[in-house]
Amino acid sequence: MSAAPSSVPAPQLPHFDAPAYRAAFSRINGLVIVGEGMADRHFRRLAALLPEQRDELLRLGAMEGRHAVDFAGCGRHLEVRPDNALARRLLAPLHEQFLEAERQGDLVGCLVIQCLIIECFAVAAYRLYLPVADAYARPITAAVLRDEAEHLNFGEQWLRPRFAAVAERVEACAGRAVPVALAMLSALEADLRAIGIEPQELVAEFVVEFQAALEAIGYGAREARRLLNRLTARALS
Ligand code: PL3
Ligand code: FE2
Ligand code: FE2
């Protein structure tokens, strides 16, 4: 008898019809749907701020609108109603920071909040969700992940050639927005665990993504790590 080929064990999938899973999914699904809708509006506002890249930004916004629709389908498939009211409350501080940057004429701040912070967060979250998603949500999440990489790339491409001029504003903006994003996450710690995502792992994955984004716009690896250590010091403590 030959030995079984060694393989990576499949992750233990959650019980998708258990009440605890469904309650947690309602809140996470709400956050994702409202977050995608918010990203749609942010890209449309960015399109108005950057007329020369208007069409591209409107295209990215439209992708976000489709993500919202597709994730709403994931909730419907599980017959779970998304808790959109909670999601709007949790996302309000980050959205407010975007609007405040816009009022200040701080285009760099708007780009950092949407294209770097929100997108890095989305990439990290969807990457960890993928292996514990139900069979209906999995291909949708995989397709969305590919799109989010494009959104992150837009911000990186815009900021990179202007690095020297924008670095100070990038840091000031990240200093305000990253802690707010992490606070939102800590409000959903138990729900993340219930759907199979370890919150600390999500923070770690976000750090990996954001570190790569900072390096892509011109930071050295050590500088980027130092900035991130400062911003995430109190995450989920
Ligand atoms: C960017 O395109 C949209 C950003 C939306 C916000 C995402 C936040 C995700 C938080 C944790 C969700 C876990 C994944 C669950 C997927 C149904
Ligand atoms: Fe999206
Ligand atoms: Fe996106």
Give a written overview of the molecule.
With 237 residues, this protein is mostly helical. It has one domain: Up-down Bundle (Ferritin). It is 77% helix and 0% strand. The chain contains nine helices and no strands. It has helices spanning 19-49, 54-77, 84-103, 107-129, 137-159, 163-186, 189-194, 199-217, 221-232. α1 (19-49) packs parallel to α3, α1 (19-49) packs antiparallel against α4 and α4 packs across α6. The chain is globular and about 50 Å long. The termini are far apart. Bound molecules: hexadecan-1-ol and fe (ii) ion (2 copies). One fe (ii) ion is lined by residues 39, 64, 119, 122, 148, 151.
Structure, briefly:
The protein has 237 residues and is an all-alpha fold. The protein is 77% helix and 0% strand. Helix 4 packs antiparallel against helix 5, helix 4 crosses helix 6 and helix 8 runs antiparallel to helix 9.
